[in-house]
Amino acid sequence: MNMKEFASLVGLSSYTLRYYEKIGLLKNIQRNSIGHRVYSSKDVQWVAFIKRLKETAMPLDDILAYATLRETGPQTALERQRLLEHHQKHLKQHISQQKMHLAALEEKINLYKANKVR
């Protein structure tokens, strides 16, 4: 699929996709006979994973490190696993903190509903 179709499918701008290619997150993108990018279903899956990591607040440098390890090959599987486990630990801490914030917010809202706060 071409850049426009791919950008629409993955929910990213063509500018972002070109940036990802420039910094090395997207590599080996095929080109057609006139030089336009042609994306595959594997590219869709990879970008979906990148987006998921970004949405969970993984720093771009860590995503790049993961991408570099991924490209190096299967011998880096343990390193990639460790990187994801490290991120998982931080994500769980963040979720726990957000749950505490939500509980405090709900408590305050309930005070307003009970007309105990003016």
UniProtKB/TrEMBL annotation:
DNA-binding among keywords: yes
Return any one Pfam family short name: MerR_1
Is DNA-binding one of the keywords UniProt gives this record? yes
UniProt entry keywords in alphabetical sequence: DNA-binding, Plasmid
**Could you tell me which residue ranges the HTH merR-type domain spans?**
1-69
Instruction: Name the domain of life this protein comes from.
Output: Bacteria
List the Gene Ontology MF annotations in alphabetical order. DNA binding; DNA-binding transcription factor activity
| PROSITE patterns, per database record | HTH_MERR_2
**Name recorded for this polypeptide:** MerR family transcriptional regulator
